[in-house]
Amino acid sequence: MRKVIKNLDKPLLIVSLLLFVFGLVMVFSASNVTAYMSKAVSPYNYFIKQAIFLGGSLIVSSIMIRFNTKAYGLISHVFLIGITFSLIILLIYGKAQNQAISWFDLGPISIQPSEFAKIIMLLWMARYYEMHAKKLDNYWTSLFPLVIGGLISFLIILQPDLGTAIIFTVIVATVFFLEPISKSIKNKILLTCIVLVSLVSFILVTNGKTLIYSRQLQRLNFTNPCDRLLTTGGQVCNGYIAMNNGGLTGVGLGNSTQKYLYLDEPYTDFIFAVIVEELGALVGILLLFLYLVVLWRIYLIGKKSYTDRGAILCYGVMTYIFLHIIVNLLGLMGLIPLTGVGLPFLSYGGSFTLSMVVALTIVQRVAVETGIRNKIKR
After folding, report:
1. What mean pLDDT is reported for the chain?
2. Where are the domains of the chain?
3. Is 110 helix (H, G, I), strand (E, B) or coil?
4. Structure letter (DSSP) for residue 137
5. What is the mean pLDDT of residues 291-297?
6. How many beta carbons lie within 10 A of that of residue 176, not counting itself?
7. Are 119 and 355 in contact (CB under 8 A)?
8. How far is residue 198 from each of residues 150, 168, 173, 203, measured CA to CA in Å?
9. Which of 123, 296, 324, 373 is 20 to 30 Å from 334 at the Cα level?
10. Contact, 281 vs 246, CB < 8 A?
């Protein structure tokens, strides 16, 4: 275990812990009013749950970090089958929240399988392409992970959770194009995907149907949200108001006005707006800088990895975190439709927190393996 601790990427570890602790504080600040006024429970309700989620995730991390990344790949087959069946079962028995059947209701907590699917698929693809490294000139061998990814993405769309489906699909596509597959096969698969999407879209349009629900179509009208304050633009407009209230230095920790039920869930999708309102734009800019540090450290770990598996895992995790940041903040700013995607390290959520910690543990394990390997070579 000493070797493991010694070879951890310390900058990434320190920044990650700081962001998680800061996120825990802000979850309490953003959620206490909602918990007390709308749910009539203790104002510490979401804070306590998030602390338990984070503590449990760190325990999982302390176990995971002891095992080689190759072991992650070996068990990823089992997890992939399990997560696929759970997504199917979810459509039958899942709990509807925010008009989407994305969660299993387990009493005090809910589990979102699609969140875990992103990391499980990444682990499985890295292992699959490593095992078939000498067969990547075969079209169907290269295509198989995309078929599996397409199936899982379709199950997520049926929930419907378009934001998660898009992030999942981009992660799968990123891993595929990073793998040493011949350019001709990549071009063929890309062309095939374009043709299939075009064909499905044509069939749906000609039959007057769409894969996007009417309430999702309404989100495409995301410009000038304050002109629709009392209808579809209320959330984004109140987010604008929160950030405008904060100015450069904020109104003070705990003093947000927009968390008084103006924002439906200020501790999830809109937590960045509450942060800027209470602590100011300067803290918001500092958070963006820390995000860049996290992404840069993950990139460096991937670049230094002595295996393609390690590099792919790091670049996949980097893509995962980056997409969550960009989709959340662009939705908050009204530049794209809101998708319900959480902000890494900061947003409330057990499944999301565990997935984030697991993803970072995978990266740290790659760093550990690289460090141990370099010392042996010396």
Report:
1. 85
2. 2-377
3. strand
4. T
5. 97
6. 19
7. yes
8. 15, 20, 18, 9
9. 296
10. yes
Report which of 186, 196, 343 is spatially closest to residue 272, judged by C-alpha positions: 343
pLDDT at 214 (0 to 100)? 53
Residues 263 and 333: their CA atoms lie apart, in Å, by 14
Q: Is 377 exposed, middle or buried (0-12, 13-18, 19+ CB in 10 A)?
A: exposed
- Looking at this protein, which amino acid is placed at residue 369? E
User: How many CB atoms neighbour CB 173 within 10 A?
Assistant: 16
What is the token pair recorded at 191?
């062309």
Residue 365 pLDDT level (bands cut at 50, 70, 90) = very high
Residues 6+ apart with CB under 8 A from 26: 267, 271, 274, 275, 346
Helices 162-178 & 113-131 angle (0-180, nearest 10): 10
Could you tell me the two tokens for 3?
């070797």
Structure tokens at 317: 């995790």
Q: Which residue has the tokens 């501790």?
A: 267
**Which tens digits make up the pLDDT trace of 24-60?**
999 999 988 887 776 657 788 889 999 999 999 999 9
Phi, psi of 291 (to 5 degrees): -60, -40
Q: Which helix (H) or strand (E) holds 153?
A: helix 139-157
Alpha carbon of 72 to those of 79, 100, 205, 361, 365: distances in Å?
Answer: 10, 31, 42, 11, 10
Residue type, 334: G
Rounded-to-integer distance, Cα 154 and Cα 149, Å: 9
User: How many whole angstroms separate alpha carbon 333 and alpha carbon 223?
Assistant: 10
* Res 255: pLDDT: 87
CA 158 to chain CA centroid, Å, is 19
| Those residues with Cβ within 8 angstroms of residue 51's Cβ, 6 or more apart along the chain or in another chain | 24
Strand order in the sheet with 100-106: 95-97, 100-106, 109-111
Q: At what angle do helices 281-304 and 10-37 cross, to 10 degrees?
A: 140
Tokens of 91: 């459509």
What kind and span of H or E run contains 106?
strand 100-106
Place of tokens 């200020």: 266
Rounded alpha-carbon distances, angstroms, from residue 191 to 144, 168, 169, 176, 187? 16, 20, 16, 14, 6
Predicted confidence band at 335 (pLDDT cuts at 50, 70, 90)?
confident
